[in-house]
Amino acid sequence: MSRHLEATIETFPISGSFTISRGSKTEAEVITCVVSENGISGRGECVPYKRYGESLDGVMAEIEAVADAIRAGLTREELQRRMKPGAARNAIDCALWDLEAKLGGRRVADMIGATSRKPFVTAFTLSLGEPEAMAAEAGRNAHRPLLKVKLGTDNDEARLRAVRDAAPAARIIVDANEGWTEENLTRHMAIAAETNVSLIEQPLPAGRDAALGRIRRLVSVCADESVHATEDLESLRDRYDAVNIKLDKTGGLTEALAMKAEAQRLGFAVMIGCMVGSSLAMAPAVLLAQDADYADLDGPLLLARDRPGGLRYEGSLVYPPEADLWG
Known about the structure:
The chain has two domains: 4-111, Enolase-like, N-terminal domain (Enolase-like, domain 1), CATH 3.30.390.10; 120-318, Enolase-like C-terminal domain (TIM Barrel). 48% of the residues are buried. It has an eight-stranded parallel β-sheet with strand order 5-6-7-8-9-10-11-12. A three-stranded antiparallel β-sheet has the order 1-2-3. Strands 4-14-13 form a three-stranded antiparallel β-sheet, with no helix packed on it. It is built from eleven helices and 14 strands. The protein is globular, with a radius of gyration of 19 Å. It is of the alpha/beta class. GO terms for molecular function: metal ion binding; racemase and epimerase activity, acting on amino acids and derivatives.
């Protein structure tokens, strides 16, 4: 078997800027991996994430380190043992899924037994900002059924109340991105309950979240930075009610499928999330999210420009990918 592997860095401008508690950015920097065999190509996209010690150069080096093995026919199963979870493995794993489907004349949805291929509601993310700015953005998107609100400051009450007033009918997910503390956790959670928040994502820093197991959780709490792979789940049962599965954390669709099945077995609610990337990064996650409790796959909606032939969005509805895009 002889395959060709190519990895390239691409940049997609963000519409305005995207701000969370750790900082802002104005563009999405992604790595696209293409694996070709017999004139047929499979693609995958990853987003290196600084929070997890990743960089564009570092991820490119990880991909190059397994290039010879990929060209020699390394399988997805072998890839799981060869590479650690993370962005580099995600790009290759998804490219191999896409290639396998195209070589076999099949769809990935059939290969993973996806029971539904219908459009579903994705959250739409509001960046962290001053209360007035967040209220204005919430008002512009008040028609959307599910909003994800970036918080993570010492005093988020004004921000959350302003968003709720501007979008009274929307379901709200709060994402603190590890920005709350044990000292303000109870107060912020009470405000979230009062404003009818459906879910709070990663309120405390990963590794310093034991307090979540000692308090009465007035709102369901979802792990993000605290959970990366299947082996993490068991230890989180005392402090989280849900888990956010992202392909860039799990290292691809292969591990994400196993993690989702185990999370559901353990009784966690499941969110399928994303980094800010193009439709190519979202496509496999859309299939994974078909029966999830929450989907946060709005990456392309935050871009000023997506890939040609990207996912179809109608308001907050996202449709499964066409074969020309992925899978």
